[in-house]
Specification:
Strand content: 5-15%
Largest sheet: 8 strands, parallel, barrel
Number of strands: 8
Distance between the termini: 45 Å
CATH class: Alpha Beta
Structural class: alpha/beta
Radius of gyration: 18 Å
Length: 296
């Protein structure tokens, strides 16, 4: 049996910057990690999409991975976002992360220079052959233009070091087929907060969540209900928080969630171009929703 990296909710953590966006705010970063651990997060994803991975330097990523591992101090797993559309670069990033002691590698499918299903298999096998840390495949076709097919998942599941999938295609039928083909050879995680309960009812082991940046404990409780096969209560709680979950995507992720963290934790609401801060109208709408949930 392959090792399960985590079960439950992994927070796709934002990367806080200084007010001018020139540097990572490591004090704020450590505070966010402590909040997550104290409020029931089961794992952390560092330098993923929500963490603005494309605009982070190699040195910044290494420092983020090192700080996250140190702050987590073995309490929960740390998963490093190390994907690239350059296979050799993905290996280099993954090796960098491994040296910092991370527990998993989240590797997005190649983007822009879109490859075939055969290319996906060779890409992931090449990386997995050159790392010792468990690999989680990240399928997010809305951003990459590439979709991992069920047959490709089956092929990937045969590699001993490819252990899981963050499935963010929103294609439930394809997910069910993939899960059926792979059985216990691959763990699946929902990559969408709004589909977590549905996917867990078909065997997913948890969610990699954006909303848990601000509400880790409620998301944990939803997932815990699912893990206990109590889907009735899971649905009730999920429906209660669905509007807040969806509000995290009123603009391109991570623009809204970074603003929400600014409101709740006083981290800077600064992003790096080409992302820009939330519009005034959307900010006002988001604040009203946060008030409805008694967050502010």
């Amino acid at each position: 049996m392959k090792k399960t990296v985590f079960t439950g909710v992994a927070t796709a953590l934002i990367t806080p910057f200084t007010d001018d966006s020139k540097c990572v705010d490591f004090d704020g970063f450590d505070r966010l990690i402590e909040f997550q651990i104290r409020n029931s997060a089961d794992a952390l994803v560092i330098a993923g999409t929500t963490g603005e991975s494309p605009v982070l330097s190699r040195e910044e990523k290494i420092s983020l991975f090192r700080n996250a591992v140190k702050s987590a101090d073995g309490r929960i797993p740390v998963i490093a976002g190390t994907g690239s559309n350059n296979t050799e670069d993905a290996v280099r990033k993954s090796n960098d992360a491994e040296k910092q002691g991370v527990n998993g590698l989240l590797i997005v499918t190649p983007y822009y220079n879109k490859c075939s299903q055969e290319g996906l298999i060779k890409h992931y096998f090449y990386i997995a052959d050159r790392v010792s840390t468990p690999v989680i495949v990240y399928n997010v076709p809305s951003r990459t233009g590439v979709t991992v097919s069920p047959d490709t998942y089956k092929a990937l599941s045969e590699h001993k070091n490819i252990v899981a999938v963050k499935e963010a295609s929103s294609d439930i039928s394809s997910f069910i087929k993939s899960k059926t083909l792979c059985g216990d050879a691959l763990d699946f995680y929902s990559g969408n907060d709004d589909l977590a309960v549905t996917m867990m009812s078909h065997g997913a082991k948890g969610v990699i969540s954006v909303a848990s940046n601000i509400i880790p404990d409620p998301i944990h409780k939803i997932i815990e209900f699912c893990l206990n096969n109590d889907f009735g209560n899971a649905r009730i709680l999920h429906e209660k928080y669905l509007n807040l979950m969806n509000s995290m995507f009123c603009e391109v992720n991570p623009i809204p969630v970074k603003y929400a963290c600014n409101v709740l934790f006083e981290t800077n609401n600064s992003l790096r171009l080409p992302l820009t801060t939330i519009t005034k109208a959307k900010a006002e709408q988001l604040r009203e929703i946060m008030k409805e949930y008694n967050l502010i």
